[in-house]
Amino acid sequence: MSRLRAIDWIWHVRGAVPLTGTHGDPFAQLAPVFEERGTTLEYGTDTLTFHKENPDSQDKLASFEHGTLRIVPAEDGAALRYDLTSHPLLWCFIAPAPFAALAYAAESMRIPGYSFAGIFAVLYVAGRVIEQRQAHRLFRNRLAPADTNPAEPVPA
User: Fold this and answer.
1) What DSSP string describes 48-96?
2) What are phi and psi of 86, to 5 degrees?
3) What is the pLDDT of residue 151?
4) Apex CA 52: angle with CA 119 and CA 116, to 5°?
5) Which helix (H) or strand (E) segment is 48 a member of?
6) Residue 82 pLDDT more than 60?
7) pLDDT(46) > 50
8) Burial, 100: exposed, middle or buried (Cβ in 10 Å; 0-12, 13-18, 19+)?
9) Which of residues 152 and 26 earns the better pLDDT score?
């Protein structure tokens, strides 16, 4: 494992959604997700790569600037494996350090420094969990078979 791969979990969200029961082209089913201003798509054989330039806040994948979706073989058929990159997650991970250093170095900045460090730490943890769940749920619901109600949770 490369050194970068050992730490890139900080700003990458990865997962897989089974394609069992999915009818048609999975990328066609996901097309409405990527019909957002500033989003460019590149299709390859069993691969979709997207890039977002200044996404709108209403974009369901606004936190992710880049991503790759691949159709891969799985135990029970095929799966959609995704790898999404989020620089906001990276900055929320890094942000507590300078605030904590400032709080440690300057007596007058102790409370505000630790407060901001704590706020960014909470933002990172909450964002990491929420963004991963939302991306997985979005892909899973879009790829759900037609006879499944997307409003009901689908077992993972």
Assistant:
1) EEEEESS--TTSTTTT-SEEEEEEEEETTEEEEEEEEE-HHHHHHHHTH
2) -130, 105
3) 54
4) 10
5) strand 47-52
6) yes
7) yes
8) middle
9) 26
